[in-house]
Amino acid sequence: MRLQMKKVLVSFIITLLLFACAGKKEINKDAATYFKEGLTYFQNKKYEKAAAAFEEALKKADTPELAAKAQLFLADSYYLDEKYDDAIAAYKSYLELYENQPDAKRALLRLGLSYYAMLQPIDRDQSYTREAYNTFLKLNAKYPEFSKKYNIPAKLRKLKNMLAEKDFYVAKFYVRIGEDKAAIVRLEKILKEYKDTKVYPEAALLYAKVLINIKKPDKAVSVLSQLLKERKDPRLLPEINKILKDLKKHLG
């Protein structure tokens, strides 16, 4: 009797284990199923789960169309979840493969906005500023009307000013420590590439001062004359007059 009970008990335990194993067995989902799950998560703003599902859909995609959709929604999931570094990588992958697709302009926009979201103060590295600027330049050139809709021209002006301000910040540092040649490189870059920025007049004035320091008075006068010609701003006159007085002292 006891032996029979043991057999029944062992059989019962084996059955339970088999059910448990069966319950843990993963269903082999195809790309379309993962994509559909990703869309559901995405619509419910569960972006982390959406990204995981779109990643699986991308791995198993058996058509270019599904792969393109999965890649774009993967990037969008990262972007809306504010995981901008991941979004940047995903959007760049999409644009490398599908640059001429209708959704490419949205991918390019959000690539630029991902960089834009991570802008740093002027005293920090400006790599994201430069990437945002270059991305928006491309967007503005390729899709001008779409670009205007999202106020990209204004963002480009802001980014250009930031890049100029960074060079001016560095130039002033070099002047402070007596590295005039290094300062000149930055100041000449501003005068050449950033004439339409807010910092341009200040950069031109500082450039003239540095030129006087390195005994190039003729070039300093030329820079000041060019500045007045381009800006025609009477507010610049007091500082220009001050620089010219200093020049006279240097000339004796």
From TrEMBL:
Sequence ranges assigned to domain Outer membrane lipoprotein BamD-like in this UniProt record: 29-203
Protein's name according to its UniProt entry: Outer membrane lipoprotein BamD-like domain-containing protein
Keyword list, A-Z: Cell outer membrane, Membrane, Signal, TPR repeat
Annotated signal peptide: none
UniProt lineage: Bacteria, Pseudomonadati, Deferribacterota, Deferribacteres, Deferribacterales
Keyword Transferase: no
Record's keyword annotation contains Signal: yes
Source organism of the structure: Deferribacter desulfuricans (strain DSM 14783 / JCM 11476 / NBRC 101012 / SSM1)
PROSITE patterns, A to Z: PROKAR_LIPOPROTEIN, TPR
Record-linked Gene3D superfamilies: Tetratricopeptide repeat domain
TPR repeat intervals: 31-64, 68-101
One Pfam family named in its UniProt record: YfiO
SMART domains: TPR
